[in-house]
């Protein structure tokens, strides 16, 4: 794995400044619900590079060891089947539960990925919730993917509103 150094990560973040700015409150809201239970929420760009994260301080070392931190690339080309890379490659929400990951190094984690589109309908990134909890089951995964899908749609609405801020938008 080739984690981006600080300067390359700054460039990647700079290229997606609007996405990161609009995503901040959404990430914070979802994190308020999910991170206390040993989960992290991640924002990536369309190249599967993690740009932002929200996680509990007590879980930070574990997620760092799992490489679920800013600067890591989770593309399917690099990692095989995984929540971030697969949702971006397939352009649809996915749940990759433990041993469904391609690489054996990743089987301790369950991941939930949802793609994000900009105001023009172009793929710009993904939201991901990951956990290594052993009590994580399919019912919990269904609940998390529902929350994550709603968060992605909220973020898309914010991106659309920002792109057309001088227009009247009827909802």
Question: Could you characterize what this model shows?
Answer:
This protein has 171 residues and is α+β, with helices and mostly antiparallel strands. It has helices at residues 6-15, 17-34, 60-65, 76-79, 83-90, 138-163, and strands at 39-45, 50-54, 94-96, 110-117, 123-131. A five-stranded antiparallel sheet has the order 2-1-5-4-3, sandwiched between helices. The chain is globular, with a radius of gyration of 15 Å. The N and C termini lie far apart (43 Å). The model has no long low-confidence stretch (mean pLDDT 88).
Radius of gyration of CA atoms, rounded to a whole number? 15 Å
The strand line-up of the biggest sheet is 2-1-5-4-3
Shape: globular
Q: Give the SSE order as H and E letters.
A: HHEEHHHEEEH
Q: Would you tell me the structural class of the helices and strands?
A: alpha+beta
Q: How many DSSP H or I helices?
A: 6
Instruction: Give start-end ranges of low-pLDDT stretches.
Output: none
Helix share of residues? 40-55%
Overall pLDDT: 88
Termini separation: 43 Å
Number of distinct beta strands: 5
Largest sheet report: 5 strands, antiparallel
β-sheet strand percentage: 15-25%
Question: Would you kindly provide a brief summary of this structure?
Answer:
The chain is an alpha+beta fold.
